[in-house]
Write a structure and sequence with these properties.
Elements (H helix, E strand, L loop, with lengths): L2 H13 L3 H14 L3 H14 L1 E2 L5 E2 L2 H14 L3 H22 L4 H17 L3 H14 L4 H11 L5 H13 L3 H11 L5 H11 L2 H5 L2 H7 L4 H13 L3 H15 L4 H16 L1 H9 L28
Antiparallel strand pairs: 1-2
Helix pairs in contact: 1-2, 2-3, 3-4, 4-5, 5-6, 6-7, 7-8, 8-9, 9-10, 9-11, 10-11, 11-14, 14-15, 14-17, 15-16
């Protein structure tokens, strides 16, 4: 087999869930035909799937995968590989944020620069969305993000893109326009998204109308509860707000008495203090999800070329 045939076989086997055999072929391709494409595909496999051991265990191999992705980058630049490295930075950014609660703007900026380089080589709506997302994480008030999303949404009206645009319109205080687009795209958005936007835009009765479905379907953060409470109370549905509070307290079931007392105090503040609800809601920051892209060369399922020509 040549390198292209070996890669095709590896991807076919991988699609059938035979990870160890696919992994062996990716390693063999690097050994027999080292190139930008073979280094990238091995790196992407290791980063996303891990290292399959003969005893059946799977070890985290993000560090080794990143090494091969960077080795591919050192040979030449392609959109596939550059987007992959941006995704590596996204995973690092998300981990740092979960640990500290603080956005690592250096990682956001670096990922933005990688996606921008990738787009210069090959455009896709998904990659442009990710570029704007990384820029937003650097500066949520960037006018480039707003203008870019307005343009992108005209040709890429996927729910993630629409929700992103609507939240950015709110950040720029274009609430009337947000509500107009909300009416247009309502069927594309989930109830939690709709409720949060109605709350921010002051359409409390519409937000309150979604309360029951939201509480039944979603795991809610304190800011989500604050928005639901605000919609119910501001639309004159205080009894429903009290019912929501009681349900939230009953479902929480903290493990210790001390934790239960703290939770009850927090619930009281959210439902009894308009000022505290406003503080939580004003501190809300929409975080758009990243759109994963296919990271393999020669993937028939996603139409990535075996070799990317420029």
């Amino acid at each position: 087999m040549n390198a292209f045939e070996r890669n095709e076989k590896a991807l076919d086997i991988l699609s059938k869930g035979k990870f160890l055999q696919a992994q062996q072929l990716f390693f063999e391709n690097v050994r027999m035909a080292p190139s930008h494409e073979t280094y990238n595909n091995l790196g992407w496999y290791l980063f996303t799937e891990g290292l399959e051991c003969k005893n059946g265990k799977v070890r985290n191999a993000e560090k080794l995968g990143t090494y091969y992705l960077q080795k591919a980058e050192s040979i030449r630049h392609t959109s596939v590989n550059l987007n992959n490295i941006a995704y590596v930075m996204e995973i690092q950014r998300n981990l740092a944020y979960c640990q500290t609660g603080v956005e690592n703007r250096d990682l956001c900026r670096a990922a933005y620069e990688y996606t921008e380089k990738a787009l210069q080589l090959k455009y896709s709506n998904e990659a442009e969305y990710n570029r704007l997302r990384f820029l937003y994480l650097c500066d949520s008030r960037s006018t480039e993000v707003l203008s870019g999303l307005e343009k992108l949404s005209g040709q890429f009206d996927e729910p993630d893109c629409i929700e992103f645009l609507l939240n950015v319109l709110c950040i720029h205080a274009r609430l009337h326009e947000c509500l107009e687009r909300l009416a247009q795209y309502r069927d594309k958005l989930d109830e939690l998204c709709l409720m949060s936007l109605y709350c921010i835009c002051g359409e409390y009765e519409k937000g309150a109308g979604l309360c029951g479905r939201i509480y039944e379907k979603y795991t809610l953060r304190h800011v989500d509860i604050a928005m639901l409470a605000d919609c119910l109370i501001r639309s004159g549905q205080s009894e429903k707000a009290l019912t929501l509070k009681q349900a939230w307290q009953e479902d929480a079931a903290p493990e210790t008495k001390k934790a239960a007392q703290a939770f009850c105090r927090e619930a009281d503040r959210i439902f009894d203090s308009a000022a505290y609800r406003a503080e939580l809601i004003q501190g809300y920051r929409f975080r758009p999800p990243v759109i994963p892209l296919c990271g393999y060369f020669g993937c028939k399922r996603h139409g990535t070329p075996a070799v990317e020509e420029h």
